Amino acid sequence: MLTEEQLLAAPEDDYMNDAQLEFFRNLLLTQAEEVKESLANARAQLASFENEPDELDKASIEEERRMALRFLDRQTKLLPKIMESIKRIDEDDYGFCSVTGEPIGVKRLLLRPTATLCAEEKQRQELKERNYRDA
């Protein structure tokens, strides 16, 4: 299996070859397991919160609960993205922008393996959203 260094050193014309796809599949499968484990831990943490009679303790516990719920929400949204990325690998569609069809790039995929947009398209969409909000 490729290392991250070998992946980054690969020529651009060999983009998303079988070895690279295997690297990202393994990375995504590992992330999926980590997310499932963290979801189980977050759910257990939420279940363990008790009602405290002391107002200060209540506020502290409520803040911890809110943070746990935000974490749970983010992780719950991440898992389907990971599974969709694995599906894109199976369909030989992984690593290419869903809008332009251009390569997303190995560096970007290492930072965000679930990316579906190339950096340029992501910037265009963010700019469009910013302009829409400001209007």
TrEMBL record:
The alphabetical list of record keywords is: Coiled coil, Metal-binding, Zinc, Zinc-finger
Ranges in a coiled coil: 25-52
Q: Give the ZnF (dksA C4-type) ranges.
A: 97-121
DnaK suppressor protein DksA N-terminal domain location is: 20-89
Q: Which domain of life is it from?
A: Bacteria
All copies of the Zinc finger DksA/TraR C4-type domain together span 93-126
Recall the GO molecular function terms of this protein's record: zinc ion binding
Task: Tell me the InterPro entries matching this sequence.
Answer: DksA_N (IPR048489), DnaK_N (IPR037187), Znf_DskA_TraR (IPR000962)
Q: What is this protein called?
A: DnaK suppressor protein
Q: Lineage of the native species? A: Bacteria, Pseudomonadati, Pseudomonadota, Gammaproteobacteria, Oceanospirillales
